[in-house]
Amino acid sequence: MKKFNYIAVKIFVLIIFLIFISVFIHAVLLRVERKEIMPNGILSEINGHRLHLYFEGQNNNKPALVFMSGGATPAPVYDFKPLYYLFTDEYRIIVIERFGYGYSDIVDTDRNIGIILEQTREALQSAGEKGPFILFPHSVSGLEALYWSSKYPGEVAAIIGLDMGFPEYYLQRKTPPFNVDQILIKFFSLLGIQRFYYPKQVDSGYLTGDEYRQMKILIYRNFMNKSVLNELKSIYSNAEIVNNQNYFNNTGNVLLFSSNGKERGSIWVNSKNDFAKKINAKLVILDCDHYVHHFESQKIFEGSIQFLNEILR
After folding, report:
1. Which CATH number describes the domain made up of 40-311?
2. Quick one: which of 10, 114, 135, 236 is 20 to 30 A from 230 by CA?
3. Domain layout of the chain by residue ranges
4. Cα 14 to the center of its chain, rounded Å
5. Residue 47 carries which DSSP code?
6. How far apart are CA 69 and CA 75, in angstroms?
7. Helices 180-191 and 2-34 meet at what angle, rounded to 10?
8. What are phi and psi of 219, to 5 degrees?
9. Nearest-CA neighbor of 149 among 66, 52, 268, 58?
10. What pTM does this model have?
11. Helix count (H) and strand count (E) of the chain?
12. CA dist., res. 43 & res. 63, Å (int)
């Protein structure tokens, strides 16, 4: 029995040592990689912090297309490239990187939906962009898009949802303010687990070698940081705020692209069906997972162009 206890203690000590080494190596690499980070857009100062906007394409007297990332997407400017590059011959595209995302600063601030929206608007205005805009929200940023269209309907010409989320989904799930899964993910992020496995990476064929390296560095830095965790903790309360807005009457023109729901369950697709029926929006179900712009970029592009040609006549 004593021998067994001795072996168990040795294994425990070894595990603690390996954890310490992993945390240390990850921290050192982050400091080294910080020098390689090279923003490719504009850094707009918001309350003393920098928020990154990426622009590409010409104006052509058409509304700019604003791409808004889903929750915990570490590098939106590269995540959206399989889709946005298809539009740049005809439209000006803008990728918004909220605090904690992409090249934006990581800050420990309130992630109330109203604050997030005003930061987005302030960054766009400081860059000379006044709208109206065509919003391309992915996942949880659907809440911001709906809130935007409700609070400032003149700034939103249309919404093209990329498997965007709706208040009903988050409220039905009764998302807790903070759960064990998020604590474990944060622990693994300190270990640097994202260096070995991150499931939602853009295919390197869409990116140059330098872009792919930048994306990896941003994944290593941004995975489950404090800005993202604060945002995740606020999903339920933000869904309640948006749900209390009269957004169904203010969204205007809406086209929805949906995943097949296998990753999120039947409630995910049902919320889109309910929303589409209430406002007579077109819903396109794609046979792919949640990051629809990775898997079906060409279909989304073609459907979006047809939709935009109809509403912008």
Report:
1. 3.40.50.1820
2. 135
3. 1-35, 40-311
4. 38
5. T
6. 9
7. 70
8. -65, -45
9. 66
10. 0.92
11. 13, 8
12. 22
Mean pLDDT across 74-84 = 97
Q: Are 198 and 219 in contact (CB under 8 A)?
A: yes
Helix (H, G, I), strand (E, B) or coil at 116: helix
Question: Looking at the DSSP assignment, which residues form a beta bridge with residue 43?
Answer: 52
- CB contact at 8 A, 97 and 69: yes
Residue owning tokens 């420990």:
108
The DSSP call for residue 138 is: B
What tens digit of pLDDT does each residue of 232-286 get?
889 999 999 999 887 766 666 999 999 998 887 778 888 888 888 888 889 999 9
- 137 upstream amide cis, omega within 30 of 0: no
Task: List residues bridging with 67 in a β-sheet.
Answer: 95, 136
Average pLDDT, the chain: 89
Q: Residue 159's Cα: distance from chain center in Å? A: 16
Q: DSSP readout, 145-178? A: HHHHHHH-GGGEEEEEEES---HHHHHHHT--SS
Tell me the CA end-to-end span of the chain in Å, nearest whole number: 82
Largest CA distance in the chain: 82
What's the pLDDT at 91?
96
